[in-house]
Design goal:
Length: about 750
């Protein structure tokens, strides 16, 4: 059997393992995305699609002084000749370069609907809009035909396109860019032209200048909006030293009479979105300080959002600080100076490296331009030299042309001319043989000689080359530069206000029903018993509170739950079940309610006669399942907590279902975070199944104790309680006959 018979047949394709193919294909795709789509080139600061749009428009003659043409024509030219991708993506890139609220220095001037800051993507279809290049696009294109760039075939090899554009300014920093590649991204913010040029000049004059030195010129990003940049100067310098970081921008507001008017928004923030964010907080009752919000933006005032406070007493700075923290009125922007360098590799560059590479690019570009011009000058001088020979020997030249069969060869032999000189003489028109033309030739020769000497001098001197680059930078800055738009104001990042600070402090009465339904009525003069309740339900407990406070609930297991008073439903209805807010153990109903400031103190106790003093903060928490507070023995019930005014002076009073009352100094009771507590009053073992503590109360020296029995109320002053004072844990005294069935205790201030 021959070797050919063993060898597998080749069918016109290569067979490789799937893993190897997938790895190679993904790597190729990744490199394409990084180098040819997502990241800009440090030289002209453009991505390929942007470069092709600008170049194609210049080829169509859409310069700043020309009339605009339909955007569809430009897009068609771009995707048909240079960029074989989707027309919508190409048009969106064109629109972006024309939006003054997206580009600090727009490269395209648009006519028609090119979107708005409220909705940048609301632009009209390309068949309706017209566009042309803006004046500053000249900075990118002005030197294109002067030998300054390399050319590469387009996608089908029928045309050539520039590999880059000969930017006279560091466009990458002027307009910035964003892009997401495979495994890397770029976020270059826009900057002020004058500041960037000033830094370039500094670097030309002092190549050893540090990033800190350059930051004296480039003070920070300069967005197309007048919103404040609040990032401290030290943080901005750190960004430029590392090439990464983040910048915070904040909207600007002014006070007009009682109203607050927002006049500037951060870069790429939509006014309608900000209004919706504020309105959502108002609907959720999280902005009680605001009465209304209006959008009064128009052509004269592109951003004018009016906030109407509820009263003149509202602190505008405090309110706006909260809005800065909770809406897009303050926004953070990522900075990642990741660009394709002169070596063709992506790299995160610090400010000095980025500007140094661009200046190297610029000096190379200027060198190529000067050499290209020098070649043209020398060629022209060479032609003029031959033409002058013809003028000086005009009769002989005419004779050779008339008589010789090969006049070109004869001219070359007779006057020692080059092929190019001989062709140029033969192509000269008769009218150029006038005597006056000789004077023009000699004048042009003198001018070109001077220009050649100047070009050679610049090309031969690095100092002169740098001076030329510097002078051109300053000239462009004078022509296109403008004042900074984004003011640099060092401020602390805004902090959202606590929920209680946003709520007006109003007296409220919190009402808890027997079946665990909760509601709150405005004011302290509400009679909870007179409210309407659901069938089979009634009043369990009610406490006086304020809208800025928390309210706590204790269930049958001694666990405590809390919520903000202002979030409770109105007492005009039946309220809502607490089980909708909390998740108590199965069958554990709510038995008590308390409210106060976090530092205030309460006595919590059980019907078995045990209790302790605790801070109200121990009753609160964000856990829906509550927190263990009071340890209960079997059969014990949680009593309504009693508020404490002064631990050292107050007395605690406990009353049992048998009419026994004990009063003793509150200071004898321990202060705990949680637990069972100490014995308050003695209940004999024989009666523990039938006798229980009905209620407790804390009476201050100036207060009075109200003992309620049915419809009757007995009032005892602090001094009258002396006959019931005893040692903590003792049996206490017996109430008078007829008052021994106590329903509740209350304290009258």
């Amino acid at each position: 059997m021959t070797d050919d018979a063993i060898r597998p047949a080749f069918h016109g394709h290569e067979q490789i393992p799937l893993r190897e193919y997938a790895e190679r294909a993904y790597l190729d795709y990744s490199m394409y995305v990084v180098l040819d789509r997502a990241l800009p080139f440090v030289g002209d600061g453009l991505k390929p699609v942007q470069r092709r749009i600008v170049y194609s428009m210049s080829e169509l003659g859409l310069h700043a002084a020309s009339k605009p043409k339909k955007s569809a024509r430009t897009v068609g030219d771009v995707i048909g000749k240079y960029h074989p991708h989707g027309d919508s993506a190409c048009y969106e890139a064109l629109v972006l370069m024309a939006q003054p609220f997206s580009y600090r220095y727009p490269l395209i001037e648009g006519q028609g609907n090119f979107g708005s800051s409220d909705d940048p993507k609301s632009f009209a279809a390309m068949r309706y809009t017209e566009s042309k290049l803006s004046p500053i696009a000249e900075v990118l294109l002005g030197e294109l035909g002067q030998g300054t760039v390399d050319w590469t075939p387009n996608f089908d090899g029928t045309l050539e396109e520039p590999t880059w554009l000969p930017a006279r300014l560091p466009h990458l920093l002027l307009n910035g860019t964003t892009g997401i590649a495979v495994g890397m991204a770029t976020d270059v913010p826009p900057h002020n032209l004058n500041e960037v040029v000033s830094a370039c000049v500094r670097l030309l004059d002092d190549p050893d200048a540090s990033v800190r030195d350059l930051c004296e010129h480039v003070r920070g990003p300069d967005y197309p909006t007048a919103a404040e940049i609040i990032t401290p100067a030290t943080d901005l310098q750190a960004i430029y030293e590392t090439g990464t970081g983040s910048v915070r921008a904040r909207g600007v507001f002014v006070k007009e009479a009682a109203n607050i008017v927002i006049t500037q928004l951060p870069y790429q923030v939509s006014p309608s979105k900000v209004i919706e964010q504020i309105a959502a907080q108002m609907r959720a009752k999280k902005l009680p300080w605001l009465e209304d919000i209006r959008d009064e933006s128009d052509h004269a005032n592109p951003t004018r959002i009016v906030l109407v406070p509820r009263s003149n007493r509202v602190d505008a700075e405090q309110l706006m600080g909260h809005l800065f923290a909770t809406t897009d009125l303050e926004k953070s922007y990522r900075v990642n100076l990741n660009v394709i360098g002169l070596d063709g590799r992506p790299q995160v560059k610090h400010l000095k490296l980025l500007l140094s590479e661009w200046l190297t690019f610029r000096q190379d570009t200027v060198t190529r331009r000067l050499k290209h011009r020098l070649d043209k000058v020398e060629r022209r001088l060479h032609l003029l030299e031959g033409l002058l020979v013809a003028f000086l020997n005009l009769d002989e030249v005419i004779r050779i042309i008339r008589t010789e069969d090969e006049p070109k060869a004869a001219l070359i032999a007779r006057f020692a001319l080059s092929d190019e000189q001989a062709d140029y003489i033969l192509d000269t028109r008769l009218k150029q043989l006038a005597r006056l033309e000789e004077m023009k030739i000699r004048g042009e020769q003198d001018d070109l000689d001077q220009e050649r000497d100047r070009l050679i001098a610049i090309l031969g001197s690095k100092a002169k080359l740098k001076k030329l680059v510097k002078d051109e930078l300053l000239a462009d800055a004078k022509k296109f530069g403008d004042a900074r738009r984004s003011p640099l104001v060092a401020r602390e990042a805004a902090q959202a206000l606590d929920e209680t600070e946003l709520v007006a402090s109003e007296p409220m009465t919190v009402v808890l029903s027997e079946k665990g339904w909760i509601r709150a009525a405005k004011g302290h003069d509400i009679d909870p018993a007179s409210l309407a309740y659901r069938d089979g339900d009634g009043l369990l407990a009610a406490v006086r509170a304020r809208s800025t406070q928390q309210v706590a609930f204790l269930d049958a297991t001694g666990r405590s739950y809390s919520t903000a008073v202002h979030t409770l439903p109105s007492a005009r209805g039946n309220g809502e079940p607490l089980t909708g807010r909390f998740t108590p153990p199965a069958g554990a109903g709510f038995q008590a309610v308390a409210s106060g400031d976090l530092d205030s103190r309460f006595v919590v106790a059980s019907s078995h006669g045990y209790g302790f003093v605790t801070r109200f903060e121990n009753l609160t928490g964000r856990n829906k399942a509550g927190k263990a507070l009071l340890s209960l023995s079997e059969g014990a019930r949680v009593l309504q907590p009693a508020a404490v005014a002064d631990v050292a002076a107050d007395r605690i009073v406990a009353v049992t279902s048998a009419g026994h009352v004990l009063a003793f100094p509150l200071a004898e009771l321990p202060e705990l975070d949680k637990g069972k507590g100490n014995k308050l009053i003695e209940i004999p073992k024989a009666k523990r199944g039938t006798e229980k503590v009905v209620a407790i109360a804390v009476v201050p020296p100036t207060g009075k104790l109200q003992v309620k029995s049915g419809a009757r109320t007995m009032t005892l002053s602090f001094r009258e309680l002396d006959e019931y004072v005893g040692a903590r844990g003792s049996r206490g005294g017996l109430l008078p006959r007829g008052w021994q069935k106590v329903d509740a205790l209350a304290v009258e201030a």
